[in-house]
Each structure stands twice: as C-alpha cells, then as structure tokens.
Write a structure and sequence with these properties.
Helices cover about 25% and strands about 15% of the residues. By secondary structure, it is an alpha+beta fold. The chain has a domain at about 20-110. A 3-stranded antiparallel sheet has the order 3-4-5. A hairpin with a 2-residue loop joins strand 1 (about 5-10) and strand 2. The N and C termini lie far apart (about 70 Å).
Length: about 140
Amino acid sequence: MAGQMVGGASGSTKVIRMPIKTVEIKLDEIGYEGWVATLRTNPRAEYYDMFLSTDEEESWKGFGHILVSWNFGDEDGNPLELPPTLDHAKLPYDVQGYLIRHYIDAFNEAAGVPKGPQNNSENSSPTSANPQTVDSK
C-alpha cells in the first residue's frame, strides 16, 4: 500500500506509511539485568483500548499488539514468547507491573498528556495555579 495514491477533495495524494514510534523499557532496576522490552507509543486506538480493558485476556491480547519485542528468557534460558501467545501467568508479577507502569508513563508523555498533581491538595488546573482576586467595590 505504501506509495499508492488516494483521492480526496483536492485530488490524489501519495499514501505515506505510519511510523512506528517506540520506547525501550529496561528492567535492570528491578533485578532483571539486561532485560529490555520495546513497546509502541503510537499503537492503533483499538489496540490501546484492548490493553485498557478490564477483561484480563482482552487486555493481554491488546498488550501483545503494543509490545514490539523483548529479550526475556525463562529460568532455563529459553526465550519467552511474546503475548498473546505467552500465557501472562508465566511472566512474574513484578515484571508485568513494572512494564505496565513505565509503558503508561511513556505513552502519556509521547501523547502529551500532562502528569497529574503529586497530591490531592495541589491545583490541577493551569488557570488555578495563580488565582486572581476580583475587587467587588
């Protein structure tokens, strides 16, 4: 499909392939020396929605579309397959939690989503940071 032309109101335009944007998440910090996962920061909306699903199997399937690669191995040094082929129960919880937490942070940063307030007492609106007083005289 790359290089094909599509019509529009102003005529034909050359189709340009969507770039695959990624982030590498290294797991050294939690004791998995050398483990690296590469995940898409611009997945299709349908895959991100699947990933966010409350249904565990649907979420894992969505994660499989977001994960590009990893170099993870089992206790015997055999490579772990990628999701959704790999049963999520074969991946330690600390690895799953770390990947998900860091992926969501990277996704939000790539999408330009501002970080929330550090605690509930902080202002969350950019306009409420410096409130102006109005003199009612």
